[in-house]
Each structure stands twice: as C-alpha cells, then as structure tokens.
Amino acid sequence: MELTDYTDYLPFWKQLTPIQQQQIQKETTFRQAPKGTLLYGGLEECLGLILIRSGQLRAFLLSQDGREITLYRLLDRDVCLFSASCILHSIQFDITIEAEKDTEFWLIPPGLYKKITEESAAAANYTNELMSSRFSEVMWLMEQIMWKSFDKRLAEFLLSECDLEGSSLLAVTHEKIANHLGTAREVVTRMLRYFQSEGFVKLSRGTVEVTDSKSLKKLTET
Amino acid sequence: MELTDYTDYLPFWKQLTPIQQQQIQKETTFRQAPKGTLLYGGLEECLGLILIRSGQLRAFLLSQDGREITLYRLLDRDVCLFSASCILHSIQFDITIEAEKDTEFWLIPPGLYKKITEESAAAANYTNELMSSRFSEVMWLMEQIMWKSFDKRLAEFLLSECDLEGSSLLAVTHEKIANHLGTAREVVTRMLRYFQSEGFVKLSRGTVEVTDSKSLKKLTET
Fold it and tell me: ipTM of the predicted structure?
C-alpha cells in the first residue's frame, strides 16, 4: 500500500526539498497491526513516526504494578509522534502505545524524521504543534482527575466510547474501564450499578449499554 | 541590565544569522517581578519567552472554583516557554505563572520568537526540547497523583521545598501546601499532624520544620 498524498499527514510536505521528499518516500513502509498489538513501550524499540491509515491506537501510562491510565486515542489520519519519542532527548517518561483496533499505518523511520526536523524549520514546527496537541490532551485529563468527581468522568468516558464505536452497546469489561480511568475495578462496578439503578445504562456480562445518553450528558455538565 | 551571553539560555544562538541575533538583542528587555506577581494566565496578555536571571517562577493549573495544582517550578537560568504559549496554536490549556520569589528576567517578545522559530530549524528544535522537558514534568506529576499515596507525595514535597529553600524550616501554610498538591487543606493538616507524631516534622503557626529528613526520604522510597 503506497502513500500517495503526504500532505494529508505532513502539512509541511511542500516546504521540503525534492531530495528530502524522495528520502521520505523511499523509507516509508506500510504496516499492519492486529488489534491488541503492543506497538511501543516497554522493551519495544523506537518505532518512528506513525501515519494512521485506518484503525485506532491507544496511548497510556503503565505503572510498575500493572495499572494503566489512557492518555489519548489516535484515529484515522492521525499522526503518532511518541512512537518516535527517542528522537526527543528531553522526553523522560515511558508511554505505551497499543493497537486498540486492527490498524494499518505508514511508518517513517525515527532517524530519518530526526534528520528532516534538523534540516527543516517547517518540519520542526509541525513536530511542536503535534506535541502541543498531545500535551493539551494530557492537561485536560489532569484537570479531569484532579477536579472532576468520578461519576462525571465515567459518564464522559461512556459517552465518548459510544461516539468512537458508533454504537450505544459497548463490549467492555469493568476491568478495562478501570484501566482507562486509572482506578480500581470495584470503583467502576459500584458506579455502573448506580448508573443502572438510575436507568442510564444496562449491564450484562462483558457489555455496558447506554440507555439514556441524555441524562449521562446532563451529569457531565453539572 | 543587559544580557551578555545569550548562549547560556539559547543553545542555538550560534546557529542564528547575525541579523537574527541583532533582532533578538534589540528587542530583549529586562524585567523585575516582585514575589507574588501574576506573570501569565487569566487576563494577562501573551508575554513572551522568559529567560530567568534569578528568582523562582511557579507554573500551575487553576480550576474554575479557585483550586490549584503546581505543575513545575523554574529557577535561575531556566527558560519559560509557556509564557509564550500563544505562539503555539495547538496549546489548548490555560496555565498560570507567578513569581514565587522576587524574580529578574529577560523577555523576548512572542512575535519575534515565533518568527525566529519559523526561520531557524535549530530554534524550533530547541522549542521542542523545552516542551518535552515540561511535558515530562507533567507526566511525572500525573503518575504521582494516580499511583502514589498522599503520604509519599507530601513527604516528597517537603523534601523538595527544603532543597529549594536551602533550609529545613519552611514558611508555608497548610493551605498553600494543599494548593501545591491539588488537595484540601484538611487532608494536608491531618497528614502533617501524623508526620509530627512520628517526629518527622515540627509544626508552628505558618511554618513546617523538617526534623527528620532521613525518615521522610525513606517514606518516599517504600
């Protein structure tokens, strides 16, 4: 699968020299990662800049004792910078990136991307904007954690999952929700049962069905 | 007060053209901010790149109902990027920056710094590294909040304050500590009293004296 229009992903494409463009075209590879693939983090090597054709990636923090918190998601047409975080010396945290759905993407090797950003101010500034976007998402999350009560965070999570899936029936375990929100399974179960008693959701084994998204939405706004 | 050696602050200085260097020299101004000055955030306009000569700045998040959490501190010789965050379109969070001690700094106007990063890949990459550093600090904080119990966070805070102040006697109220750590005053008071009963600290009106830093240190490591 060849990438035909680089400007879709790299807005600085036309500001590169023909030689730089050729280098990128030559070294870009197409990859497929089935759902569940660990793309980055832990013992995986520095992957490079990921240009997502289709699918869904999840970036998360992983604690020493195996707890998780989802930082952000990347979807079709998004560019993943932290899979190339080895090129940024000052990044001193470990992020984990997994394919949350079957994902197809193009990969620009880290060494080449580093070289291009060193040569091209436009590429370097684009990298800046990418990082600013992710930074903003993490700051939003931080505010949620610090200042939003858990009922609101859970309601927001369920609504955004419904949006992502295009369905009100979510195939997700309480354990998985707990990992997303960085809390314990029991906390999630208790709140989901409360939501069920209020008629907001319907719980079955391995699924959560949102039955009253209006009320959930209202909850997030109070 | 004229800045004589820009390379101390801007490692890309020698990669700039003579014209770019002259522009920066011409537009850099010296400023003084007494302790307590709000430098950035809220209704303040976009300030620019701050090069700290001496003093201490605190960057924090402020919630709608006035709660705070300290993100990071900047000290002598540090460069503050987020006081120029208006030049990064993708930054979508509001950070507040105040002088926590009397602070002297040089200021490069945001428009000029933006122009320089657009022209110079070295300057743009330096901006990237600056942002990576701050991002790393925020991620560290996130992990602290998510996964460290409050006794450890408080112990770490007290020890790092002693380091910053060069003294084991801290003139700080419980309210202020609560703001730093994003929690309620009562939570801080309760834990400080526990620390006092263990002989780690001695409390007086408006001060906390660390009397057993070894045990506090041990606490942070368990």
Answer: 0.80
